[in-house]
Amino acid sequence: MPAIQVENLTKRYGARTAVDDISFSVEEGEIVGFLGPNGAGKTTTLRILTGFQPATSGRAFVAGYDVFNEGIRVRENTGYLPESTPLYREMRVHKYLTYRATLKGVPRRLRREYVESAMERCHVIDVRDRIIGHLSKGYRQRVGLADALVHRPAVLILDEPTSGLDPNQVRDVRDLVKEISVDTTVLFSTHTIPWVEQVCERVIIISRGRIVLDGTLSDTRKRVAPWSRVEIHTSAVARDAMEVLDKLERVFFVENLTIGERTALRFLTSKEQVNDACADAEDALSSISATMGEPIVGDAMVEDLFTRLTRGSEQVVVRA
Amino acid sequence: MSRLFALTRRELEAHFFAPVPYLVMFLFLLMTWMFFVVQTAGAHIRVSFQPVFESLTFVLLILVPLLTMNSVAAERAENTLETLLTAPVRDWQVIAAKWLGTFSFYLTMLVPTLVYWAVLVYLGRHIGKPDTGPVLAAYLGAMLLGGLYIAIGIFASSLTENALLSAFLAFFTLIALLVVAYIPEVSSLLPDSVGESLTYLNQQEHFAVFLTGKIAAYDVIYFVSMTAFFLFLAVRALESRKWR
Ligand SMILES: Nc1ncnc2c1ncn2[C@@H]1O[C@H](COP(=O)(O)OP(=O)(O)OP(=O)(O)O)[C@@H](O)[C@H]1O
Ligand SMILES: [Mg+2]
User: Fold this and answer.
1) A226-299 placed in CATH 3.30.70.260
2) Does the domain spanning A4-222 belong to CATH 1.10.3860.10?
3) CB-based contact A94:A115 (threshold 8 Å)
4) What is the ipTM of this complex?
5) pTM of this prediction?
């Protein structure tokens, strides 16, 4: 049995469907990124897997146990870092971790050793006697991670482990997760793509409660290979330019990148038709009496696929 | 067992890291001391311990909600409830530990009142010491009363993430228990037998018995069952996340 198996999981809040009939599995030892924009249903899914909330329908197994009937077993074998890293702010780091190890059933004689090694792995040894509330966000995040893995679970579930961190700390946490994944199954959610590209073998993209992509990173790269991304500058107002470009057959997913005065847009097009598409764009812009600068053409990236899958209409997803 | 103990210990320790519990303890000692001084000052024949706890039903009406208002509500607001409940612990263990932890703090609050007893024993060495039996009965009553109040406070706290709101909810629930039997509109609506069972809910009626020095199973059962009932409701409130 896989480390995580999800079958037809659905969660409704009243009339709103947060998770809509999703199925996926994560094999033992894998590290999988769970990607999706805000409100896609990532947190909801992870909360169901950790037994914090039940699903409306469907089944899920974690570490070989049924999430709905064997919740305690699941939680004994899972380490979970909730979205905002909630911690008891008044406690000291090592006391907190010892407390958590006790709750998670680490036998008394092993507790000290487990806590020490979790602190070492997460590089919080130097703040072991500090009060959690006085720590920086990066350190609190690491304390949260140390908590998640203190009982040496088979499966780690992390909800946006790097949100709100500066780039250096993002790198630290990323390396840490990669290190942990050597002997643990990891499922983590995020909306930053580079993260996924650097640590994951596989990615699952969820959008509006549905899985729109589930595959290895190399498959995903192959999928974007036939596509180019084109950046253009134009004298037109962004809104007008987007309107005319959206109508073009060979131009997809027009995005507004404008920062300063000059309008900057990005769109995708198939590699073979890139020259035609640029010509189309120039014609379309001149029809509203605007000019277009020299287009900058590059390879499409996983990020573009993400944009396409999560922002496009259903129809476009099929076409991709 | 070690889980329940660890949970309880954290709960108790949390009281010593916040300012409000200290304030509550201070007010509690101040109030009991005032009742003690005022009521025993004029006693010449035989000193009595009873005044110390005589107004406990009302003193705790304000103090216990302050003590319990954060217990679940703060964990909800800070989201630590998610960390807590995704550890391999059961909902009832969490609530039981919250009660045990706060109750332990309450017991620590009662300890200094033993001084009043000592003072009475000393003052009464010529005119008659207070009998030990009734003092012990009063302490048992005080413990049972506090236990019930704490259960109600935790229940109120488990309903919301707003601590202040939970304090008010607890306060009004406690008031309701006290007065419901005496609201004419309520009792006139009900048949006599039901009206009488409403007086059964009144905590003061039961607590007063302990202050007279009597320990009756009837009153002990009242406190134990009511405490268990409100803790049960608190567990259900915690579980409510599952069907919301
Ligand atoms: N308790 C709740 N009651 C009602 N609706 C909810 C509740 N929790 C989540 N939702 C809704 O369910 C949907 C999915 O939310 P979820 O938090 O799972 O998204 P997410 O992918 O984690 O987003 P983010 O990246 O912002 O964290 C959203 O539309 C959200 O508004
Ligand atoms: Mg989320």
Assistant:
1) yes
2) no
3) yes
4) 0.88
5) 0.86
